Amino acid sequence: MLVWPEDGHASAVDVQIVTEAGFEAAHFGAQAERIATARARVRTETKTQLEGVRDDLARAQALYLEQDYAQMDRVLAEAEARALPLLAVPSACETLWELEFRRGLAARGRADADAAQARFRLAAALVPQRRPELGYYGPDVAQAFAEAAQAERASVKTPLGFSVMPADGTRVVDCRPVDAREVEVSMGLHVLWAGAPGHRPEARIVDLSRTQTLRVVLPADGLRGVDAIAALPEVVELELSGPSSRAVLWQAARAEADAMVWLSHDGQTWRAQLHLERGRGKVHVASTRAEAITAAVSELDADGTLRMLSPSVQPTPAPAPTRKPLVRRWWFWAATGGVVATAVAVGLAVGLGRRASSGSGRQTITVE
Hints:
The chain is of the alpha+beta class. 40% of the residues lie in helices and 21% in strands. It is built from ten helices and 13 strands.
């Protein structure tokens, strides 16, 4: 049996309780070390991909100075298509701002004022407080960007329905995570990102010229267990209330044990829940770590079966729907070496997907 602490901090008490209950205890430290090793590998891959985007930005800047605006936009469009899932999250949003701002510059150089304003507005939506350097780009560019930013702020907001499959997936709009399935956004270009444990993240730039509904069906990424956990972008949380998280955690735990106790702490109380391959126990809430673990372990018979009702008829209290700060997600920060970057960049397609009009006048975009 393995006790898996949500915060990554194992305790000798965990092993002692499991052993005294008559079960062989697996040590979480070995699991955490494997996750840290896999996370370091992902970090190296991500760093390489980010460096490739920065090289593209530098090449585009050189083409801007040469006034080769058509080739500049081609370079930027290719970088956007290749790396959007990597960039459309909070940790990489500044780099995405650079890319979209430069696409606006390229459009402006081609005398396409509408396309220039659309890209400038998108950049303003991504990082509202940022402006181009006046000394480098001159007053004309600064004025055009300021007008676009003002238009973005003044634009009437319209509802966007944004759903993800699997249902416990994470949604991000313009680099900001959103909890609601319908959000208010301005007309124009927006970056939508979706991800879930064990699934490949997807990102799209869509033009919300009218009220729309976006449904993203995420493909499996082929990763399992520790590798799937290490690959999680920083905006995707492991929450046992979600089936995707449960599947990934169980795959990782199953390599070490036949049973797992998931342990979490909200600052006041401890919660522990027993998980088996074919079911799970109740969530036990206690004032101490030991009490919570003991209660969860007590649900397991010596033959490895649950003593309580089957999970299909057993109520399990859902955790409070609060978003934990990134500093608590030890699996993301393990072995990062101080580099702030998203965990993995996969899912390289960019587009609007398949469109289908609905009778209500809303437009549905389905991505599969």
